[in-house]
Amino acid sequence: MIVADRKSLQEILAMVADKKKILILGCKGCVTVCNVGGLKEVEILAASMKIARKKEGNDIDIDIQVLERQCDTEYVAGIRDVVGNYEAAVSLACGVGPQFLSEMYKDQTFYPGVNTTFFGGAVQHGIWEERCAGCGSCAIHNFGGLCPIARCAKSLMNGPCGGSSKGVCEVNKDTLCIWDAIVKKKMESGRLDDLIGVKPIKSWKTARDGGPRRSIREELVQGNI
Amino acid sequence: MSELKSGSNLEKVLKAGHFAFTGECGPPKGANVEHLKEKLSHLVGKVDAVNMTDNQTAVVRMSSWAGSILMMEQGLEPNFQMVCRDRNRLAMMSDILGAYALGVRNMLCLSGDHQSFGNHPDAKNVHDIDSMQLITMVKKMRDEGKFLNDEDIDVAPKMFIGAAANPFADPYEYRPYRLANKIAAGADFIQTQCIFNMEKFRDFMKKVVDMGLHERCYILAGVTPMKNAGMANFMSKYVPGMDIPESLIKRLKGVDKKDQAEEGIKFALEQIQEFKEMKGVAGVHLMAIEWEHKVPEIAERAGVLPRPKV
């Protein structure tokens, strides 16, 4: 899923400092799963903002809504009748949400309430880790099912670098050296041969380097499915 | 290794079977040519080639190719370092052509320290290709006369291709295989990370020799003389990939502070003597960090002077 972190209350308050009536929009997709932009988090943010503004003697009127998904025009269209009633809106969806909203409602301002960080998953309750860089040409099967593009600090395809120490990356002691894991897995399974030879230079055309990407499924476009 | 690949002095020295002795110099944090020349002046006639580092430890300095050219003006042969952190394949190939056009004949292919260690930690890193792939690219440019996209190069750059190896990084058992990959990729010579743990290095070299890797490329052992116990402590704690045995730190601490530099040099000299005898080691790469003026003394005492003329 897409993982995000909530922006600080101060940062969000500063974005809407001159607004008196706002809408906070949650999303039932990834940000609900990673506990940053679902109903509960939307309610907490609204309450915190109200308290902070009340303390300043500058009350703010906040309504909330949680959309099924903010990355789908069908659901984004659901706030058509009310979106004009506010001076601004804060979206707690990933970076896709406030863009879909901004594209549909050109007269409204949508502020991002979260920082979208990575594609990943929860490794334990409350801790998420990156797993995928969305490079557009997956080859993890060549690396024991572990992605060096997303998980090596230098995206080495022929690692590990000289900074790998005791299974940990030199950049951050809390980060696994994924190349250490790849090598050990290959060695333990007697498949060291898989790592002999140079992995060829990657084409980044399918990644963001090739420009903004688009995925077209003809059968769906034509309405056959 | 029958005919010369680049014709560099370093290549000729190694090919003739001499024990190579290379130095290292960091370009200035600015355009202070005089300071660079002063540092380099100590190395003239004392080494076969000098590595010109490329924004080492991710700290911005004068470009390594410019430093390499300035070095040549002083009669030294550069080993032009290139890291994958700061350039994509276009910039790399372009800089390789430029450096070659200006006379550079050796280059060292590296990944590069992560920018979070340096003085611009907010920078975006590139890593379009990795150090292993950089070796294959330089080899392709040299041997096939082609760019990565298979277009012909109008006068191909003939570089003597170097790579690094850190026998002390993990997973240790894999390090000889990674070295083998670098050699298969096209590395003509290897300069190792600074060696302090001799026991581990002996074991590493034994594995390397057993695999026959020393017959397929020249391996230069990395030596850094310690200036004092504080430096040993610092490197042990803060420099990634360093393996500094407690016994060495103890040895340095065991003498008066004013004698610690001499003790550090003595240890380096003992290492060089052992490397001269060690099977598979073709030379020493001396990294006297901001201690260039000590290189003549170390070279003299190590018995590696005069340098061969080939």
Give the topology:
The complex is a heterodimer of chains A (225) and B (310).
Chain A: E1 2-6, H1 9-15, E2 21-27, H2 30-33, H3 39-55, E3 61-67, H4 73-76, E4 88-91, H5 96-104, E5 110-112, E6 114-124, E7 127-132, H6 148-151, E8 168-169, E9 172-176, H7 178-188, H8 218-221
Chain B: H1 9-15, E1 20-25, H2 33-41, E2 49-52, H3 64-73, E3 78-83, H4 89-101, E4 106-110, H5 131-144, E5 160-165, H6 175-185, E6 189-194, H7 198-210, E7 218-223, H8 229-238, H9 246-253, H10 260-277, E8 281-286, H11 295-302
Parallel strand pairs in B: 1-2, 1-8, 2-3, 3-4, 4-5, 5-6, 6-7, 7-8
Question: Can you tell me about this structure?
Answer:
The complex is a heterodimer of chains A (225) and B (310). With 225 residues, chain A is of the alpha/beta class. Chain A has 2 domains: 2-117, Rossmann fold (3-Layer(aba) Sandwich), CATH 3.40.50; 133-210, no CATH class. Helix content of chain A is 27%, strand content 22%. Chain A has helices at residues 9-15, 30-33, 39-55, 73-76, 96-104, 148-151, 178-188, 218-221; strands spanning 2-6, 21-27, 61-67, 88-91, 110-112, 114-124, 127-132, 168-169, 172-176. In chain A, the strands form 3 sheets. A 4-stranded parallel β-sheet of chain A has the order 3-2-4-5, sandwiched between helices. Chain A is elongated and about 65 Å long. Chain A starts with a strand and ends with a helix. The mean pLDDT of chain A is 97. Chain B has one domain: Alpha-Beta Barrel (TIM Barrel). Chain B is 39% helix and 15% strand. Chain B is built from 11 helices and 8 strands. In chain B, strands 1-2-3-4-5-6-7-8 form an 8-stranded parallel β-barrel, surrounded by 6 helices. In chain B, strand 6 (189-194), helix 7 and strand 7 form a beta-alpha-beta unit. Chain B is globular and about 60 Å long. The two termini of chain B are 16 Å apart. The model of chain B has no long low-confidence stretch (mean pLDDT 97). The interface between A and B is medium-sized, with 32 and 38 residues.
